[in-house]
Design a protein that fits this description.
Keywords: Signal
Number of strands: 0
InterPro entries: TPR-like_helical_dom_sf, TPR_rpt
Organism: Fibrella forsythiae
Structural class: mainly alpha
Signal peptide: 1-23
Pfam families: TPR_6
Length: 608
């Protein structure tokens, strides 16, 4: 008996599966006829399904809709009308579908009164249930009755008291009607949900740099005034300002939000970091200043004290010629941080930074060494910090023309930071030291290992220097030209710009047809950049692009031209052209990813 019962259950299950599969195949067959334009056959198949499901909860909307369409396309409009009138007297979903389709027919015929009567019945029957009215909104969309769909979705939001309820559907309808303001307003509440904010920003991105952009700013500002306590709404306005590179406006917004919501400077500090990344040093300085003055006992205070000097330092370094008085002021500021806050893990970098200012900008190399020794002593509990200071010391000794001291320090860091980023950096410095001294075979051996380094920056630097050596050695037994060139490169590292310029001019006359000609022009452009002669630097780079486009510096020169035009000349229109030219000419360049990202930023594209 038990086995017989199990057999009956199994047989019943198989019959059910068979029926479901058959039903599915009938649906597929009808859909296939419909897609192929065989409407008479489609009507026959859909009709079977409608009749089969009338007594069982009613057929699906798509089945009814396609059945009616197929009848009309088969020149059986009268039959379609009879069916709709019959269904309109039924109950449940089938009645709703019939009323909608009758209304659609009336609407297409220009009978607006009949259409309104039918649609009103559907709306009234569902307006008390948020799920039903939302489904009605979807059906109104299906029959292209956008005004009624909007009314249905709005009712759903009223019932749920949730402005995000079907907000995307509602916004899409407004967009379709050309009502940009309501589209913006309807999407905005979705930004309150962290997982939806990027999607909203992506949608708004389409307005940036268009005639509708001003409307976006207006709506965002109005909403902030209306909802001053909403962090998400405030962040959307800040996001807009950042897309437009309006960092000072973004700071005003973040400061206002910080005061209202008592955020302890957290958002302002985030903006400062972003401003530093984008070389917006004035905004970064103003941000750190706000934190220092407003929250002297706050978490971000010691960081802000240190970072504001970093920002000022970068600002000073990017104004030519560099004023030594400003450098001394920066060193004094670093000393005040150490005095006021004390030497802690948060402020140790102030010692390193001061030492590098002494060495690189004041030519006080002994003072730099004394300060680095002090930093090493104070930071001995942090091996990574100590090794960074050792690399700095190695650089200072190279400035002093004491390469043996440099290589000793670089080698120590190579050993202690083996297989780590700092170890690779030390190895690269040693390779460059061999190159400066004319030991090209030794340098290239180290560089070829570094080309497989884990960081792109180090691998790229190693690849470029290795190619320079490969292309310009072996041409004569003494490698005289290459040795003269590497000696000039060392002078440039040591900031002996006048001497380097004199030797470059001499080499250009002596080796006018040599393969090093473009490299010499490249070095001259680097000197111009250090001297703040941006127009002259760009002219040199253009010479390389025009005369040596296929040499190894062709892509470097064009990319550097674009960057100088962008960052120093602030000529966005010309920079866009140069970045586009670069990506078209050198799509496989190591700089392509960075150029593409910056191009998108300048165009106002969404950046994830």
């Amino acid at each position: 008996m038990k086995n017989r019962a199990c057999g009956k259950i199994l047989l019943g299950f198989l019959l059910l599966v068979s029926q479901l599969s058959w039903g599915q195949s009938e649906q597929d067959l009808a859909d296939e006829y419909f897609k192929n334009g065989e409407f008479e056959k489609a009507a026959a198949e859909y009709g079977k399904q409608v009749r089969k499901n009338e007594e069982n909860g009613g057929p699906a909307w798509q089945t009814v809709y396609r059945y009616v369409v197929s009848l009309k396309k088969s020149k059986k409009a009268d039959e379609a009308d009879r069916q709709l009138k019959r269904w309109a007297k039924a109950e449940g979903n089938l009645k709703t579908y019939a009323l909608l389709l009758i209304g659609q027919n009336a609407q297409e015929a220009g009978d607006t009164l009949t259409a309104k009567k039918q649609f009103s019945q559907v709306y009234e029957a569902s307006k008390s249930d948020p799920m039903k009215i939302a489904r009605v909104g979807e059906l109104f969309e299906e029959i292209s009755s956008s005004d009624w769909a909007i009314q249905a979705y709005q009712r759903g939001q009223q019932l749920t008291e949730d402005p995000t309820f079907h907000a995307e559907d509602l916004a899409t309808l407004y967009r379709g009607k050309g009502d940009t303001r309501r589209w913006i307003e309807t999407l905005l509440p979705l930004s309150q949900k962290p997982d939806q904010r990027e999607r909203v920003q992506g949608a708004y991105q389409a307005l940036i740099n268009t005639k509708e952009e001003a409307l976006l700013e207006t709506v965002l500002y109005e909403r902030v005034q209306k909802e001053p306590e909403s962090i998400a709404t405030n962040e959307m306005l800040t996001w807009y300002y950042l897309q437009k590179q309006k960092f000072s406006r973004a700071l005003l917004q973040e400061k206002a939000m910080d005061k209202r919501l008592k955020l302890s400077g957290a958002k302002v500090f985030e903006l400062a970091q972003l401003a530093m990344t984008n070389r917006e040093y004035k905004t970064a300085i103003d941000s750190y200043e706000y934190i220092i003055q407003t929250y002297p006992q706050g978490t971000f205070y010691p960081y802000a004290r240190r970072m504001i000097i970093n920002a000022r330092e970068e600002q000073v370094k990017n104004v030519y010629p560099i004023e030594k008085a400003e450098i001394r002021k920066l060193i004094y500021d670093y000393q005040r941080v150490l005095s006021d806050v004390g030497i802690t893990p948060k402020t140790l970098d102030a010692l390193r930074n001061s030492a590098n200012l002494y060495a690189n900008y004041l030519d006080e190399k002994d003072s730099a060494l004394v300060m680095l020794d002090k930093a090493i002593t104070m930071g001995k509990s942090d091996p990574l910090f100590v090794d960074k200071c050792k690399l700095d010391k190695g650089d200072v000794y190279l400035l002093k023309n004491e390469p043996w001291e440099s290589t000793l320090l670089y080698s120590q860091v190579e050993k202690s930071q083996k297989d780590d980023l700092l170890g690779y950096e030390a190895k690269l410095k040693n390779a460059k030291l061999h190159y400066y001294r004319g030991d090209f075979t030794l340098a290239k051996g180290v560089l070829d290992v570094l080309k497989m380094a884990t960081t792109r920056e180090i691998a790229n630097d190693a690849e470029q220097l290795s190619m320079l050596i490969l292309d310009n050695t072996g041409l004569d037994s003494t490698e005289a030209a290459m040795k003269e060139y590497s000696a000039i490169d060392l002078l440039l590292f040591q900031n002996k710009l006048d001497e380097a310029t004199s030797q470059i001019n001499g080499m250009l006359k002596k080796y006018e047809k040599h393969t090093l000609a473009d490299e010499l022009i490249w070095l001259q452009s680097k000197i111009y950049m250090k001297e703040g002669k941006i127009d002259e630097a760009i002219a040199n780079l253009k010479t390389i692009v025009d005369k040596y486009p296929l040499d190894i510096l062709g892509d470097d020169a064009l990319y550097e031209m674009a960057k100088l035009t962008d960052e120093r000349k602030k000529n966005t229109v010309e920079a866009l052209k140069l970045y586009q030219q670069f990506l078209t000419t050198y799509p496989g360049s190591l700089f392509a990813a960075d150029a593409r990202k910056r191009l998108r930023q300048l165009r106002g594209d969404q950046i994830n």
